[in-house]
TrEMBL record:
SUPFAM superfamilies: cAMP-binding domain-like, Winged helix' DNA-binding domain. It comes from Eilatimonas milleporae. Keywords: DNA-binding, Transcription, Transcription regulation. Pfam families: cNMP_binding (PF00027), HTH_Crp_2 (PF13545). GO terms for cellular component: cytosol. Residues 26-135 form the Cyclic nucleotide-binding domain. This is CRP/FNR family transcriptional regulator.
């Protein structure tokens, strides 16, 4: 893990304006003129693939915004079984908690870069800039909505519906980032997907095979999926398949 440090002045302002995370999540709450205030409390941190940013149980001193790459959030049960809590990419926010320690671990699925903010510095900035505070509340409400959607998926959908929902959500995120609308790049393994959806590896593999057999997707290789029939994928995800 490499901490690059805080660059001040014109350099930092230009870097923030050009950052791919600029229009999303936390940074979206600041005007271009006020963005340097947020940048002034940020430290850039680079992660190699497989490197852990923080562990479950570490002191929760910082929050993070993803600038590049993919990060996996996970948690271990008392029996040692893993639950993947999410897959984050550019613009996503993590580390915010009401507790003194992190309840999850964060590991880079690819080479990644994040902005790190001290919790105390960010809380001070929120009190100074009402528009940033409003964006922060909007952002956390959106994260809660995402969690409720996941709970519904895990509680009410069968295996094929869960996998279809996962693929459709991944495609949605790419479209929002102006990336290809018919092809998904999945940096995570099938085991990661299984642990995220509460399924076994074998069940996830069978679901991918079924979607491929029915002509809904094509699998170029383990990490690249082509969506051939999105309407059909949505039908399956919603239980109409």
């Amino acid at each position: 893990m490499v901490s690059i440090g805080v660059q001040g002045g014109v350099y930092r302002q230009a870097a923030c304006l050009q950052c791919p995370a600029r229009p999303r999540m936390l940074c979206a709450g600041m005007t271009n003129e006020l963005l340097p205030a947020l940048g002034s409390i940020a430290t850039d941190v680079r992660l190699d693939k497989g490197e852990t940013l923080f562990y479950e149980g570490d002191d929760a001193k910082y929050v993070y915004n993803v600038k590049k790459g993919y990060v996996r959030l996970s948690r271990l049960g008392v029996d040692g079984r893993r639950q993947v809590m999410g897959f984050l990419t550019v613009g996503d926010y993590m580390g915010h908690t009401g507790k003194s320690q992190y309840a999850i671990s964060a590991e880079a699925l690819t080479d990644a870069e994040v902005c790190r903010f001290s919790r105390s510095d960010l809380e001070s900035l929120l009190s100074q800039y009402p528009q940033l505070e409003r964006q922060f509340h909007h952002m956390t409400a959106g994260l809660l909505d995402d969690m409720l959607d996941l709970l519904f998926t895990l509680g009410r959908k069968n295996a094929i519906e869960r996998v279809a929902s996962f693929l459709d959500n991944a495609l949605d995120r790419q479209i929002q980032s102006d990336e290809p609308a018919t092809q998904i790049w999945l940096p995570m393994t099938r085991a990661d997907i299984a642990d995220f959806l509460g399924l076994t590896l074998e069940t996830v593999s069978r679901a991918f095979s079924r979607l491929r057999k029915e002509g809904i997707i094509d699998i170029e290789h383990a990490h690249t999926i082509h969506i051939l029939q999105r309407a059909r994928l949505i039908d399956i995800a919603s239980g109409d398949g």
